[in-house]
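// run 5 | inverse folding | seed 20
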């Protein structure tokens, strides 16, 4: 009887230990599985963070490069516009210098000679602002008379500052040699060449 009781106790102990070991193994396995899942989730999240950071970094780098390129383009455009303005100012000063000097008389006479040489030319008018007309009228008329150019009328018109216009009274067509027109013409002629020079310097 005593042996049977001992065997029963031993069996109970054995069964308890096995059950405890089985339960402990299950707990360890579950803990390992949970740990692996946590590690996998953490790795996936870390990968997402790294990918997002890389994407954001690339976006910021591209945005920065685009901004630098645009700033460079804006600077070049601004510089070209500044050069064009300066060029126009310089041309304007030179044209003004010529148009306020006695050289204006020769320009008017040369233009009238060219116009008068046309076979159908008649009733030619030279239009100037009233101030220039007062200054240069006698010299212009004397030069035209010396060259035997007839049928030329000098008229005042204060719609433009300096220079002159030549018109035929019959049809109202005129050539515009006003200071503004000549400055625009010269600036437009010179600006493309300046632009080419700036491009070559890039």
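// decoded
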């Amino acid at each position: 009887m005593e042996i049977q009781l001992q065997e029963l106790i031993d069996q109970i102990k054995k069964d308890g230990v096995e059950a405890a070991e089985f339960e402990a193994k299950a707990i360890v396995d579950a803990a390992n599985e949970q740990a692996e899942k946590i590690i996998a989730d953490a790795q996936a999240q870390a990968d997402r963070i790294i990918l997002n950071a890389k994407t954001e970094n690339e976006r910021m780098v591209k945005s920065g490069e685009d901004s630098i390129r645009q700033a460079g383009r804006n600077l070049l455009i601004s510089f070209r516009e500044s050069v064009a303005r300066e060029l126009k100012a310089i041309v304007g000063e030179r044209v003004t210098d010529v148009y306020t000097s006695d050289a204006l008389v020769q320009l008017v006479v040369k233009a009238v000679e060219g116009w008068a040489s046309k076979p159908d030319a008649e009733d030619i008018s030279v239009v100037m602002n009233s101030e220039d007309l007062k200054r240069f009228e006698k010299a212009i008329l004397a030069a035209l008379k010396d060259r035997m150019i007839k049928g030329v009328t000098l008229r005042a018109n204060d719609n433009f500052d300096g220079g002159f216009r030549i018109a035929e009274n019959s049809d109202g067509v005129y050539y515009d040699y006003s200071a503004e027109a000549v400055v625009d013409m010269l600036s437009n002629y010179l600006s493309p060449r300046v632009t080419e020079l700036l491009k070559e310097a890039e």
